[in-house]
Amino acid sequence: MIFYIVLILLFLLILFSVTFILFKSRTPRDFNEFLMELQYIYLGFETNIQDLIYGPCFNKVSLYSQSSSVAVLTGGNRGLGLSILKKLLQCEMTVILGVRNIEAARKSVESYIDSSLLMNKVIYENCDTGDLSSVREFAKRVQERCRGINLLINNAGIMSGPYKLTKDGFETQMAVNYIGHFLLTHLLMPQLIFASKESGKTSRIVSVSSCSHHGGRVKYDDFNCTKFYNPGMSYCDSKLAQVMFTRHLHKMFIEKSWNVQPYSCHPGLVNTGIFENSLVKSLNWLRKLTMKTPEQGARTVIYAAIAPEIESNGGVYITNCRPSRMAKTAMDNAECRKFFSFTCDLLGIKNFGTD
User: Fold this and answer.
1) Strands annotated E in 20-93
2) Where are the alpha helices (DSSP H) in 146-282?
3) CA-to-CA distance for 169 and 5, rounded, in angstroms?
4) Catalytic one of 40, 124, 178, 235
5) Does the annotation count 235 as an active-site position?
6) Is 189 helix (H, G, I), strand (E, B) or coil?
7) Which of 52, 117, 133, 307 is the most exposed place for a label (fewest CB within 10 A)?
8) Domain architecture of the chain: domains with CATH
9) What is the pLDDT of residues 237-246, one digit of tens each?
């Protein structure tokens, strides 16, 4: 009983602190925005409480050797990505790392991961998922290096920040978190399929989403937020897009008999640099007290990437190393198919995975 009382008090403390910062920095433009801000805050703290309760029991993953496997990881040079990379190397995988700055990434990786694990197992390539030409060049270099890849982890991401369009005309968060990874997955499908045939084992795609996807919406009429932009809500939208993408991929792979399993996951509220533009940026003490470490957050991602027990359970949304509830919109197969087709049209993709 005391434990639950402490959790409730902690929740109230966090809610008060963030709400104070939010309304001190700016005032919502209308009542609808006020409600969206409250929902965004609530989603974060709901999952925070779940992590505190369920994390110690379920957030565990067993690593095992996969020395013949090749993984592609975007954004693996800091924070959560570094911890994901380390665990992949502990599984003896070769990892192709897609990063925006190769030299900075190399320095970061070599300072964090012991040289005995690296052993020429990390290949650095330029990739900015917010730039479609960069994504295409990255995919081309991966294809030149490898006939097959066993694992694709779509991890690169940004959160909040001022409104900005990429040079391709997409809202930045949606571009980096979803559009770029959609294109990359499309381009690398032949390598994923080849690896599954060659090894006789299922290849996997893992999209690192967020609990915030529960607050996301599909906005066909204002996809790039030209009419209305709220940083937190746009982040939610991009994370919902990832989960819906995963759901439709699962259905499509079954229809095409492709031996590839897609998963989406929420690593938890992880204390990394992704919060540098968020409401809790200045609450360092609170982040350290309540959030997961990058290593703890990486466990769920690696679970989705290698756990044998979910081999035949593709399309699921995973948190704390177990399948979890996803947003109702993502459970609507027709809506997922519609959004998938909408994205293909935006990118000029006629036959996903085979163009």
Assistant:
1) 70-74
2) 172-174, 180-199, 231-256
3) 48
4) 235
5) yes
6) helix
7) 133
8) 57-347 (3.40.50.720)
9) 999 999 999 9
